[in-house]
Design a protein that fits this description.
Helix content is 62%, strand content 0%. The chain is mostly helical. It folds into 2 domains: 278 residues, Hypothetical protein af1432; 63 residues, no CATH class.
């Protein structure tokens, strides 16, 4: 393998782990981060958490887990092409959605509303909270004790207030510096993954059609390429040939433009990366095409009446659970009851955020339909 670029993150420039540990054997520090993330409880739960389509609606739709794997794959490919630290990119990608609630964004928005007077809820901060303190696996510390660079990569946005409270890992939001290019790339790999798999899942679910997608410049262009090369091709193969061309176009654009940005900014070291403007970015030509695709998905898929119906149900489940536990923390399992003796609302939010979709549904049935709690309206 080619040597890493001088501006890649290496162990030599890493700020290390909060709790000092012996160096790993037979693997590097960032590989160890990735391995710890994969072995975590929160990672396994991603399998049963909604991305866009409720998990039990079909076996072929993306879940948070398969989404995270796609983000990791894209991040690694692009990191390697730019001679960046692939292990760091992979670790950040696999952890980026750990803090998601059940039921996707509807779950997070509802939990945030429930937590309005208790510090709010944000899935990105929650991902960091999981790897920093909620995972209980090691004798010597809470959380996974990941390297600073992986933790910093997970925290992709943060309010000034939260940045103050977080200390070192929040510092860049206060002084306006950047995280590694590896972390910047994962951010965009996330977008490439969901924009494309949502087209694929949306077509599979028959919520959007090929005819509608023809309004979208990048889709129409890739579709024409497939038709020229494979006249008469139809069905799943046709969709996949089109979607894979979109993924390729976006990734290649991002690699080329990021490389040009690095050169134009005169970036030579990782310290330069921190002080430079954001380096991982699409070209001027690609940006409006991605905006157009996002606007299309927003209007036609995320706001589809069938999706909205499931969102409505999800909101009620999360709100009911929150109300029930707040009214009677004795309904929480033992270790969460102990946490609730400190900050009750936060302990409840942590517990609900950790639930898989199906666990939340079951717990809601138990508490709200079994007569134990009467404040539920679902
Ligand atoms: Mg994501």
């Amino acid at each position: 393998m080619e040597p890493l670029a001088a501006y890649a993150v290496t162990e030599a420039v890493s700020r290390g782990r909060h709790h000092a540990e012996p160096a790993p054997q037979g693997r590097g520090e960032f590989q160890r981060d990735r391995d710890r993330i994969i072995h975590s409880t929160a990672f396994r739960r991603l399998e049963y958490k909604t991305q866009v389509f409720i998990n039990h609606e079909g076996d072929l739709f993306r879940t948070r887990l398969t989404h995270s794997l796609e983000v990791a794959q894209l991040s690694r490919s692009m990191a390697r092409a730019l001679r960046l630290n692939e292990d760091l990119a992979e670790a950040v990608a696999l952890a980026h959605d750990l803090g998601h609630t059940p039921f996707g964004h509807a779950g997070q928005d509802t939990l945030n509303a429930c937590m309005k007077d208790h510090g709010g809820f944000e899935h990105n901060l929650q991902s960091l909270r999981i790897v920093d303190s909620l995972e209980e696996r090691y004798a010597a510390f809470d959380g996974l004790n990941l390297t600073f660079e992986t933790r910093e990569g997970i925290l992709k946005h943060c309010s000034p207030g939260n940045a103050h409270a977080l200390g070192d890992v929040g510092q860049r939001f206060l002084d306006g510096t950047q995280p590694s290019i590896e972390a910047q790339l994962v951010n965009l790999a996330d977008e490439i993954a969901y924009n494309n798999h949502d087209v694929d899942d949306g077509l599979r679910a028959k919520l959007i059609t090929l005819a509608q997608l023809d309004e979208v410049t990048i889709f129409a262009r890739c579709r024409r390429e497939v038709e020229a090369q494979w006249p008469g091709l139809q069905g799943r193969r046709f969709v996949h040939e089109t979607v894979r061309r979109m993924i390729n176009a976006m990734s290649l654009d991002l690699i080329a433009n990021t490389r040009a940005n690095i050169a134009a900014a005169g970036v030579e070291t990782f310290a330069d990366v921190r002080r430079a403007p954001v380096l991982a970015a699409y070209s001027e030509a690609m940006r409006p095409q991605l905006r157009e695709l996002k606007t299309f998905l927003f209007g036609n898929l995320y706001r589809h009446e069938q999706v909205l119906r499931t969102i409505d149900k999800a909101r009620r489940i999360v709100a009911d659970l929150f109300t029930a536990y707040m009214a009677d923390p004795a309904l929480l399992p033992g270790q969460h009851q102990a946490r609730a003796e400190g900050d009750k609302a936060r302990a409840i939010a942590d517990y609900i955020a950790g639930m898989t979709d199906r666990y939340a549904v079951k717990e809601h049935e138990r508490l709200c339909n079994g007569g134990e709690f009467t404040g539920c309206y679902y």
